[in-house]
Every structure is written in structure tokens, then in C-alpha cells.
Design a protein that fits this description.
CATH architecture: Orthogonal Bundle
Structural class: mainly alpha
Number of strands: 0
Number of domains: 1
Shape: globular
Distance between the termini: 38 Å
Radius of gyration: 12 Å
Strand content: under 5%
Order of helices and strands: HHHH
CATH class: Mainly Alpha
Length: 79
């Protein structure tokens, strides 16, 4: 059983991204999505990242809450 943290910082680590607070904030500020681009279709994800994120949503994996939070943060400006 996996009992590790599955928060936003841990998700960034799983995605191969810098996961300290400053880099997370920088990523979110510089990768805001527009209304015509879905979270999983964003051009800044590589295929492995898309696979991990899609699995989080479709399998309701332990990463689902963190992935949903990230999607919300990246789409906040297009509402």
C-alpha cells in the first residue's frame, strides 16, 4: 500500500518538474491555459506526463486530487 504524500509538490516531482514552492508558482504563472486548450492537451506536457495525468483522472488514482488542483490552477485565468 502506497502511503506517500500525493500533494501538488509530490505531483510536480512525479511529472519530473522542479517541485519547490517557487518553481511551482512560476510554472503555474507561465503556463496558464486558454479556454480553447484542455488541461491534458496543453502543449507543455510530454507524453509521459500526459499519461500520468490521464491515469490520475481516469483511474481516480491517488494523484487525482493533486491533478485536479493543478488543472484548476492552470485554467483559473480562462474563466
Amino acid at each position: 500500500m502506497d502511503i506517500g504524500l500525493h500533494d501538488l509538490a509530490a505531483l510536480f516531482g512525479q511529472l519530473g518538474l522542479e517541485n519547490d514552492e517557487q518553481n511551482i508558482n512560476r510554472f503555474i504563472e507561465s503556463h496558464q491555459l486558454t479556454a480553447d486548450i484542455t488541461f491534458l492537451d496543453a502543449p507543455f506536457w510530454n507524453s509521459s506526463q500526459v499519461e500520468l495525468l490521464q491515469q490520475a483522472f481516469t483511474d481516480d488514482a491517488e494523484w487525482a486530487e493533486a491533478a485536479d488542483a493543478l488543472a484548476t490552477l492552470l485554467t483559473a485565468s480562462c474563466k
